[in-house]
Design a protein that fits this description.
Mean pLDDT: 94
Structural class: alpha+beta
Shape: globular
CATH class of the largest domain: Alpha Beta
Helix content: 25-40%
CATH topology of the largest domain: Aminopeptidase
Low-confidence stretches: none
Number of helices: 12
Length: 320
């Protein structure tokens, strides 16, 4: 067992990502280094002096940081708790967690473990050690809406309702528009282009756009730059006469696509561009080999797109 500083953890992102890829029943992208580091650095304002709890042993990882009060540790991303801080084989990761109080620290210590698939293997492994804790509480976190593209785009489409299929096939939302794959555009230019479009949305006019919140703007800025560096960035724009009307932005890790943001200018709200661009993106993702298309947190409109709603919980456990 070895204990790492946060900077050491960042330098080992490749080996950490390898372990994430092998971990079952997690939100893979959001448990990985890009999402976790961006959230740690920009969403939660965690200083260099913060007390981190990052442990690795034979490919099993525990990745926590102290927040709010001493000896209470949270995942590196705890805004939505999409990601799981116990990485590797669930049984071995929980065994590593059980060793912590005696080997790493003395006295009561609390861990908030997010990104646990409800009734999955990790949930069962943690329930099995409930009796060893001073406190053990379960609470819901953020569910994920998943499209299964394992059999390709057409199979996914055939599983949609008749009316929804008809509306997608008859959509004229992209008629006359150019689809620009901007995934390799330099980050500065891409971010400027995204913000220019965001300023034309109704949310921006209302003052509720996520890019108007500095911490979230910096969070997505970091994600864009990291994904660009790894070649995993996915961005499509729908343009007309040289003007961007809509975009969709996500990241691809292995066979997993994770969507982040999709927007269209307010003047195009009645043209059906949003649904049409989402459909085009799904089609391209499937053609590129993506088998799992993660739409992110649950929202009623996503139900007609998704094959599965994955339920996640968090567990707060205090060890003596």
């Amino acid at each position: 067992m070895r204990s790492l500083t946060y900077n050491e953890f960042c330098r080992e992102r490749d080996s950490f990502q390898t372990s994430v890829t092998k971990t079952p029943e997690i939100a893979e992208f959001c448990s990985g280094p890009i999402w976790q580091q961006a959230a740690h650095d920009f969403l939660h304002k965690i200083g260099d002096a913060a007390n981190h709890f990052i442990v690795e042993e034979d490919g099993q990882w525990l990745t926590f940081v102290e927040r709010d009060q001493p000896r209470v540790f949270f995942p590196l991303e705890s805004a939505w708790m999409f990601g799981c801080p116990l990485i590797g084989d669930p049984a071995r990761a929980v065994a590593l967690l059980r060793e912590v109080p005696g080997k790493i620290t003395a006295g009561p210590i609390g861990f908030c473990i997010g990104g646990v698939r409800k009734e999955g293997q990790l949930h069962r492994e943690l329930e099995a050690i409930r009796h060893e804790t001073m406190q053990f509480e379960i609470f819901p976190t953020t569910d994920c809406m998943i499209l299964d593209l394992g059999d390709g785009f057409e199979s996914w489409l055939q599983r949609r309702s008749k009316n929804f299929r008809k509306s997608l096939r008859q959509s004229k939302g992209l008629t006359g528009l150019e689809i620009d794959d901007a995934s390799r555009l330099e980050p500065d230019a891409l971010i400027e282009r995204i913000i220019h479009l965001q300023r034309q949305t109704y949310k921006w006019a209302e003052g509720t756009d996520i890019f108007q919140m500095k911490e979230y703007a910096n969070f997505y800025d970091s994600i864009i730059r990291q994904l660009h560096a790894t070649g995993e960035l996915s961005v499509l724009f729908a343009t007309e006469n040289g003007e961007d009307l809509a975009y969709i932005f996500g990241g691809i890790t292995g066979q997993v696509y994770r969507g982040f943001q999709m927007s269209y200018v307010d003047s195009a709200k009645d043209r059906g561009i949003g649904n049409a661009l989402q459909t085009e993106n799904i089609k391209r993702a499937a053609a590129s080999g993506v088998t799992r298309y993660d739409l992110g947190m649950h929202s009623p409109y996503k139900e007609r797109w998704a094959d599965l709603r994955e339920e996640y919980i968090a567990i707060f456990a205090v060890f003596a």
